[in-house]
Amino acid sequence: MRINNKDVILSMDTNNIITSLAAYDLHLQHPPKPGGSYVSVNIRNNIAYIAIQFPIRNDDYLYQGRLGDTITTEAGYVAAAMCAANVLAQVHKYVGFDKVAGLNHADIYYQAADGWDDGPAIANGASDLFVNVLGEKGIHTRAIFGVDKLPRNFSVGITCSFSLL
Amino acid sequence: MRINNKDVILSMDTNNIITSLAAYDLHLQHPPKPGGSYVSVNIRNNIAYIAIQFPIRNDDYLYQGRLGDTITTEAGYVAAAMCAANVLAQVHKYVGFDKVAGLNHADIYYQAADGWDDGPAIANGASDLFVNVLGEKGIHTRAIFGVDKLPRNFSVGITCSFSLL
Amino acid sequence: MRINNKDVILSMDTNNIITSLAAYDLHLQHPPKPGGSYVSVNIRNNIAYIAIQFPIRNDDYLYQGRLGDTITTEAGYVAAAMCAANVLAQVHKYVGFDKVAGLNHADIYYQAADGWDDGPAIANGASDLFVNVLGEKGIHTRAIFGVDKLPRNFSVGITCSFSLL
Fold first, then answer.
1. How far apart are CA B150 and CA B144, in angstroms?
2. pLDDT at A12
3. Which of B37, B38, B151 sits opposite C117 (nearest CB)?
4. d(CA A42, CA C40)
5. What is d(CA A25, CA B79) in angstroms, rounded to the nearest whole number?
6. What is the pLDDT of residue C23?
7. Which residues touch B141 (CB under 8 Å, ≥6 apart)?
8. Distance between CA atoms of B101 and B103, rounded to whole angstroms?
9. In this predicted structure, what is the pLDDT of residue C6?
10. Would you state the pLDDT for residue A29?
11. Closest in A45, A52, A149 to B143, CB measured
């Protein structure tokens, strides 16, 4: 299968996912804890809802600032990939990839300087990771928009849900 | 069951909900009407989608302004709880709590002054209410972000959906 | 059936949809292509997720700017209708209206000048189109909010999903 002229892998098991993420220097361990009175993953009927994920790694807050100001587009791409990796870490911990039918949709938010317009480019950091790591099950729709501010001054945040088998 | 180190009640009937909301000085009557060509609650297959709710009470628009400017964080917490109470009033009127499997996910939007960063604290006004009032069925994931502007200058707004039995 | 004091048609077939859109001078052809590593429509279980749609027509980017500044409220209403027509064009191409149980919820984003507060009025451009063209199956909930910026300086964007039969 091909998406946007790239080959898409069709298999997905946890070992493949770990290997694929390692190529990004990203890991499934230590998903961030919720920053309030909510849960990171909520399974209702056949959908797993994932709370907003930020570029947090081992409890460190990374990529804080505004895109086009202190955060470059290239860094934003990595920040979005890190959000996506945290999504997968939550799925790994609370759902299990063997139960996943596929990613549904991702909302990708960013905060940026005036005049900066590379939202699609940084959002691809998450979209590419989902498709490269999950294969056909990572195919998704998305919405992207620049918000006034994200909590803790994060440059990027991602919310999504997965359909379950 | 416990979430974020708090006990979570497991039962949910309409009388309990009314009693719990009364403790907040909130009520299930008079859910706000839609402000456009849409409906407040849309049931499709086994999900009830709830339109964005604002801190409106008996048709009065409350908590208008920007957090960190004319609206304090403490007031924002109450404003978010009032949005959540309106969500429940819509569910009570158009769905019935006996048909609810549980809350899925809440998107919580706020408009705030530059430098204000208490989004998680005010969002807990809604999250706490959902869990305190609905028990296990109120557990949810959430996304929060600061928007440029909400309609009618409301400081907070909430959109969510519920899975049905 | 009536919604907001307007009659709502109850039938929906592709010919009716084409005729209804023609009355808007809108068409089902040429849905915009995705602007990144995602798909325009993603069907998982019994929901079709539609990627964010903008006022794009035959690959031309229209209605770029801020509402209340270079884009009037009247133009914003048309821009939102164009986004909604593109949603329908995606459904026509990738789902088929005969498989649609109904529209679930629409998130409607806009970028506007300081002090402009006609979000509900422009969002009705999309809501009216959905209901006028799809009838009962176009009834939906919605959320609207003003974002800091939309990609490519679009004034309006819409994300939604449909339940399938």
1. 14
2. 60
3. B151
4. 26
5. 42
6. 79
7. A38, A39, A40, A41, A42, A49, A50, A51, A159, B104, B105, B106
8. 7
9. 53
10. 76
11. A52
Coil, helix or strand for B158? strand
Token pair for residue A46? 């056949």
Q: What whole-number distance in Å separates Cα of residue B122 and Cα of residue A66?
A: 23
**d(C-alpha C107, C-alpha B122), whole Å:** 22
In this complex, do A124 and C36 lie within 8 Å of one another by their Cβ atoms? Answer: yes
Write the DSSP symbol of residue C155.
Answer: S
Question: pLDDT digit string (tens) for B116-142?
Answer: 999 999 999 999 999 999 999 999 999
Backbone torsions φ then ψ of C9, nearest 5 degrees = -70, 155
Crossing angle between the packed helical segments C119-134 and C14-23, to the nearest 10 degrees: 140
Distance CA C137, CA C104 (A): 9
* Residue C105, both tokens: 């919820």
Comparing CA positions, the residue from B94, B108, B78 lying closest to residue B31 is: B94
Distance from CA of A1 to the nearest CA of C (A): 13
Closest CA to C12 of C108, C139, C142: C139
What one-letter code names the amino acid at B91? V
ipTM, 2 decimals? 0.91
Sole residue written with tokens 């909430």: B158
**Cβ atoms of C92 and C37 closer than 8 Å:** no
**CA-based end-to-end distance of chain B:** 21
pTM above 0.80, yes or no: yes
Rounded to the nearest angstrom, the minimum Cα separation between A55 and chain B is 14
Contact check, Cβ <8 Å, B104/A49: yes
pLDDT-derived band of residue B10, with 50, 70 and 90 as boundaries? very low
User: In terms of Cα–Cα distance, which of C71, C78, C94, C84 is closest to C138?
Assistant: C84
Looking up tokens 């209804």 gives: C20
Q: What is the pLDDT of residues C62-102, one digit of tens each?
A: 999 999 999 999 999 999 999 999 999 999 999 999 999 99
Any residues with CB less than 8 A from the CB of A2 and at least 6 apart, and which? A8
Strand partners, A153: none
Length of chain B: 165
Each residue of B34-68: pLDDT tens digit?
989 999 999 999 999 999 999 999 899 999 999 99
B neighbour chains, 3+ CB pairs within 8 Å: A, C
Which positions in chain B touch A145 (Cβ < 8 Å)? Answer: none
Helix (H), strand (E), coil (C) string for C61-123: ECCECCECCCECHHHHHHHHHHHHHHHHHHHHHHCCHHHEEEEEEEEEEECECCCCCCHHHHH
> Is-contact A80 A125, C-beta < 8 A?
yes
- On whether the CB atoms of residues B14 and B97 are closer than 8 A, the answer is yes
Under an 8 A CB cutoff, do B143 and A44 touch?
no
